[in-house]
Design brief:
Elements lengths: L3 H11 L4 E2 L2 H8 L9 E5 L4 H14 L2 E5 L17 E5 L7 E4 L4 E5 L4 H8 L4 E2 L10 H7 L6 H4 L6 E7 L7 E4 L25 E8 L1 E2 L3 E9 L5 H12 L3 E8 H10 L15 E9 L10 H13 L6 E7 L1 H9 L1 H6 L3 E8 L4 H16 L3 E7 L5 E8 L7 H18 L15 H7 L2 H14 L11
Parallel strand pairs: 2-4, 3-4
Antiparallel strand pairs: 1-2, 5-6, 6-10, 7-11, 8-9, 8-10, 12-14, 12-15, 13-14, 13-17, 16-18, 17-18
Helix pairs in contact: 1-3, 7-9
Length: 471
Amino acid sequence: MVSERHKVALAEILGAQGVVGDSSGMAAYESGARYDQGRAALVLRPRDTAAVSACVAYCVREGISLVPQSGNTGLVSGSTPDASGTQAVLSLDRMTRIFDLDIDNRSLHVDAGIRLSDINGRLEQSGLFFPVDLGADPRIGGMLATNTGGSRFLRYGDVRKNTLGVKVVLADEAGTVVDLMSGLRKNNTGVDWKQLFVGTSGTFGIVTECVLNLERLPRQVSTAYLVPRTAAAVMPLLRMMEERLGSYLSAFEGMSRNAIGAALAHVPALRNPFQNGDVPDYVILAEISRSWAARADEQPLDAVLETVLAGIWEEDGAPLADAFVGPAHEMWALRHALSEGVKHAGRLVAFDLSFRRADVLAFCDWMKAELPREFAGVDIFDFGHIGDGGVHFNLVAGNASQVDAAFEQRLRDWVYSVAVDRFGGSFSAEHGIGRKNQAYYDRYTQQKNKDLAAGLKRLTSPGSLGSVCFG
């Protein structure tokens, strides 16, 4: 859908390796992580900010629509082209050269195409890490574009909290570069413009470089599986853990029996840690950590956790039915296998929801009672970040043929209505906005907010950029 003239011109800007136009070469950029499939006009692969600016400027002047793509691990069709064949994918996958560590400032300047695993692998020898923990391995530009949360949000916060500066290319006829690169943690001199580009799916501009806040790498870690006595006991248990462990508590992750069972079935190498292999209805993975090496005069972390759990157990009406401390790598391996396990359990319709913390399990319990009445043959495989109110509410149909487009639409409408209207939650906790949930942004966002977003879009990137319409 893009003429040969444009392909030649863009190849002159980006070099021969910077433009992909054949169907086999574009295939990996057209398929998303969860069922979404589009068709690209071509794929652009710049190597640095200047090249992004030049090709964006050309595309805006020539009316070529662009979809920015980072690691393509998103789950809401935000980084893949639509089916029209008219959109060019602008991939950041070659932008991996800048890696400038400032140990004294505990910050890192990187290109937006570097993967999270590469960042933390290279930082390990310095005793630092970027503290947004994920099961997937995205590129950092996409993490900023979606404001990723992760499993340790409870202690470290999300990407927004850990971004100090950005460099952005706007979709205008000049390909304007906005330099908001700063290592400052305090800068109260006006609007914090970098936040305009965090969590907005690349619609207002393409993040090409960033400065990240780093944290000390944990040197001591202790984990435990906690089995709450009832769903109602989860919040008292969390409050007790927070009261007695303070900033040591770095994760409090909930896992349902169905989700654990799916992971164990899909990954035979995982060890079933539960007595006689009987998986409880609900399990909490709790983690505590210290950033310094063990000292002879302090209680080991496993002992700290065991002491705290024993104290909770002795409380009147104790919220715990069972608990055991175990190897962190094994416990996290099960947690990180949940997504893949659920994906292989049947035809998946996934939701990324958030609530006030006390409402997470209230919502799940309500759904367990009402879902079978509304949608027979659909089962719940939920897990998520109980400590910050997030839940990956996964629905799986054993009979994949029943999930046609109309069925999925009806199911999504019903779940989002309950989550937002009945429980006051959010329809997107940490996956951002994409074509898959655009309709719900349109439905649940106040018109004034849409008008403001539309005005910002016109001011920043008037060209056709991204797969989302915020205004």
